[in-house]
Design brief:
Elements: H1 4-14, H2 22-71, E1 84-90, E2 93-105, E3 113-122, E4 130-137
Antiparallel strand pairs: 1-2, 2-3, 3-4
């Protein structure tokens, strides 16, 4: 034991050790958990933003489609009859598309005659509707 005793004491003095202490392991686990929670929150926000962006793009496509159909109406006078409220179902989502038409001028003494067409598309789970406006002059 006399020969083993000094060797064991020497290894303790030099500080050689194997593995990690319990405290180092706990700190590593806390850091890893914090990073994973932050990453999870980021991914949830990213998924929500992507979904809202896709809904807004579809709403913009629906508004653009309606503006195109109004611009290509057969007569200028028939534009007023295109004001409407529609419910459109796409991919199990229902969009509410409203077309507003305002006639400016057009009287016998008026110097201008045009219509302002605004299409508003209400999106599910999105607070602000998508709007697109154009002006169409007499042709």
């Amino acid at each position: 034991m006399g020969a083993r005793g000094p060797l064991m004491r020497a290894s303790r003095v030099t500080g050689t050790r194997r593995g990690m202490t319990l405290m180092e392991t706990l700190v590593a686990i806390v850091i890893l958990a914090s990073v994973l929670i932050g990453l999870g929150e980021f991914m949830a926000q990213f998924a929500h933003t992507t979904k809202v962006s896709a809904l807004q793009q579809r709403g913009l496509d629906l508004a653009t489609d309606r503006i195109d159909s109004v611009e290509h109406s057969q007569t200028y006078a028939s534009i007023d009859s295109m004001a409407a409220v529609e419910s459109i179902a796409m991919d199990s989502t229902v969009y509410q598309r409203t077309t507003y038409i305002q006639h400016i001028g057009g009287g016998p003494t008026d110097t201008m005659d045009y219509r302002t067409v605004t299409v508003s598309v209400a999106l599910p789970t999105v607070t602000a509707p998508v709007r697109k406006t154009t002006m169409i002059a007499a042709f």
